[in-house]
């Protein structure tokens, strides 16, 4: 069983960048697929980006493709979300989530698949 903790959120201007980190503890991080979800005020939580257990494949929501990059360093038990060319509509609470998926080469976009969640970090983009 792993625990996840996000960091790196904050305030950015439109067109700017932020980098979120997701630090894992308490388990073998390399056994888990990892994803970032976000929830804006008054909206449902949505999939943003995901990465397979070994980092070999990544997947993105259409509206962030080309602007956001998900990565991981298993040796450091950490996943990242580099967010560039931020837009006001990216404003949300961002959550790191994981489920055990060693050997699986795809990612679930369904939040119900994910067993482990961080507490979330606020990202606010001003226009």
Question: Would you mind describing this structure in some detail?
Answer:
By secondary structure, the chain is mostly beta strands. It is about 0% helix and about 50% strand. It is built from no helices and 11 strands. Strands 2, 4, 5, 6, 9, 10 and 11 form a 7-stranded mixed beta sheet that branches. Strands 1-3-8-7 form a 4-stranded antiparallel beta sheet, with no helix packed on it. A hairpin with a 6-residue loop joins strand 4 and strand 5 (about 45-50).
Structural topology:
Layout: E1 3-7, E2 10-13, E3 18-25, E4 32-39, E5 46-51, E6 58-60, E7 68-73, E8 78-83, E9 92-100, E10 116-117, E11 121-126
Parallel strand pairs: 2-11
Antiparallel strand pairs: 1-3, 3-8, 4-5, 4-9, 5-6, 7-8, 9-10, 9-11
Structural class: mainly beta
Largest sheet: 7 strands, mixed
Would you tell me the overall average pLDDT? Answer: 97
Helix content: under 10%
Distance between the termini: 40 Å
Question: Strand content of the residues, in percent?
Answer: over 45%
How much is the radius of gyration in Å? 13 Å
The outline comes out as globular
Q: Short description, anyone?
A:
The chain has strands at 3-7, 10-13, 18-25, 32-39, 46-51, 58-60, 68-73, 78-83, 92-100, 116-117, 121-126. It is mostly beta strands.
Defining traits:
single chain; 127 residues; mainly beta; 7-stranded mixed β-sheet; 4-stranded antiparallel β-sheet; 11 strands; 0% helix; globular
């Amino acid at each position: 069983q792993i625990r996840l903790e996000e960091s790196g959120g904050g305030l950015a201007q439109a067109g700017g960048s932020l980098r979120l980190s997701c630090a894992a503890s308490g388990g073998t991080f390399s056994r888990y697929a990892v994803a970032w979800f976000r929830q804006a005020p008054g909206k449902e939580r949505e999939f943003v980006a995901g990465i397979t257990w070994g980092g070999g494949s990544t997947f993105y929501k259409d509206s962030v493709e080309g602007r956001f990059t998900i990565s991981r360093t298993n040796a450091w038990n950490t996943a990242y979300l580099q967010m560039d060319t931020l837009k006001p509509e990216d404003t949300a609470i961002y959550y790191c989530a994981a489920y055990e998926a060693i050997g699986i080469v795809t990612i679930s976009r369904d939040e119900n698949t994910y067993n482990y969640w961080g507490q979330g970090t606020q990202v606010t983009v001003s226009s």
